[in-house]
Amino acid sequence: MNDNTSRVIAGSEEWCSFPELGIPAVKARVDSGARTSSLHALNIRPFTRSNARWVSFEVHPLQNERSTVLRCEAQVLDRRTVKNSGGFSEKRYVIKTSFGLGDDRWDIELTLANRDSMGYRMLIGREGMGGRVLVDPAASFLLGTRTDEEISAIYAKHENKNDGLRIGLLASNPKLYSNQRILEAGRERGHDIRFFDIRQCYMKLDAEAPEVHTRGGIMLNNLDAVIPRIKPSITFYGCALTRHFESMGIATLNISQAISRSRDKLYALQLVLKEGLDIPISGFASSPMDTDELIEMVGGAPLIVKLLEGTAGRGVVLAETSKAAESVINAFKSLNANLLVQQYIEEAEGKDLRLFVVDGKVVASMQREAAPGEFRANMHRGGTATSIKPTPEERKVALRAAKAMGLVVAGVDLIRSKNGPLLLEINSSPGLQGIEEATGKDIAGSMISAVERMCEWKRELSLPSTEASL
Predict the structure, then answer these.
(1) Residue 63 to residues 20, 140, 278, 437, Cα–Cα distance (Å)
(2) Cβ of 433: how many Cβ atoms within 10 Å?
(3) What is the CATH number of domain 7-155?
């Protein structure tokens, strides 16, 4: 029988440390229901040292704060597939390092993952407790707490000066993960970046003195750049607003014309075909009288029926039989909806790829797989996302597709077929959460860097005070 008297009694949240990594304090969730322990990490980069595999990464140890950055290195123990709290499977690097909890120290295995969307930057799972810890889920900080003043002193928090660019983020919901990350990344680099609700902006069209205002009469003419993230339902007005900024000489990360092209799925496919890129065989018709011919045109059932106005998998249906396809097509047509009928690629096995392009480079890639019984478009229903290394041909297709649209930032969706990669769709406002969590890449930071290059703005980089003091 185990002697429970020799074990540490911890609450559901505790402060811990990682001496070998140079992390003196991080608030952790203690969860015996989780198997593995995980540390928040970004910009994870593998390298070789003395013929051994190592990994470098950045840690933001304080929740909801990104100006404190610790740069760490550790030898790689393994790389494992782990299912996160959202049900997505992802490959993570595993390291082994010394771990401090209260007055006790032992070695612990950690997976490295982006935990920005989680409540804690550190999760202690049951394997990390190693038979040393008992958990009182009703208690907190039984092993000691830290005041805000102590944490500030420990990390000597470096405050960025807002002496950078004046950037406006044009979007609809400031609470979305993607928008929060872009704002954080901009402020982390010392820029004055602010959120502006597209629907609350209005324009003055004047040849001599054009203006953009937001609610309350605040003029936005002094911005250096804007980052448009326009949701589909307000594409017309969002593009008009972006176009007005362009006419005033203000840099836009994605121009209005490129956004408009990408939102018209039919036009976008016509443009990429003109560039010599391959897509699944697709058909488009106006009259329900042509339904049978349309089904035959793409090789018959099973096939995909896709609304031209649909986004994020909505408005995409897999019709497994010709009768089902005919019913779906005619139902959509009765609503005067424009749709595409598209060849079903059986060998893809319910998987597709998302390649994230920023300024002419593929900065991150993931493979998405639908849950059993779900169609590929319904990735949000328990599907999995894993970081992958795209082939050179897949990278080339993604870059050519983004260039054909004229997009600086694009999420390019591909599918693997027996004849090579096929282009599915190009998104001008791709979400960041899934791909940042799957890959550990700082994509928001890449977007801000693209704005800096666009504005020809540079700052000499310096090490954070936290790193210098450790």
Answers:
(1) 21, 17, 44, 16
(2) 18
(3) 2.40.70.10
- With tokens 């096939």, the residue in question is 303
Q: Which amino acid is at 120?
A: Y
Single-letter amino acid, residue 276: G
Question: For residue 413, which amino acid is it?
Answer: D
Helix (H) or strand (E) holding 352: strand 351-358
CA 310 to chain centre: 20
- CB distance 424 to 411 below 8 Å: no
User: How are strands ordered across the β-sheet holding 361-369?
Assistant: 384-387, 361-369, 351-358, 409-417, 420-427
Q: Which residues contact 202 (CB under 8 A, 6 or more apart)?
A: 212, 213, 214
- Average pLDDT, stretch 69-95? 82
Report the CATH architecture of 166-262. 3-Layer(aba) Sandwich (3.40)
Q: What does the pLDDT look like over 408-454, one tens digit per residue?
A: 999 999 999 998 999 999 999 999 999 998 888 889 989 998 999 99
Helix axes 256-263, 265-274, angle to 10 degrees: 100
User: Is the pTM for the entire model greater than 0.85?
Assistant: no
Q: What is the pLDDT of residue 158?
A: 41
Please identify, in words, the CATH class of the domain defined by 281-306+313-344. alpha beta
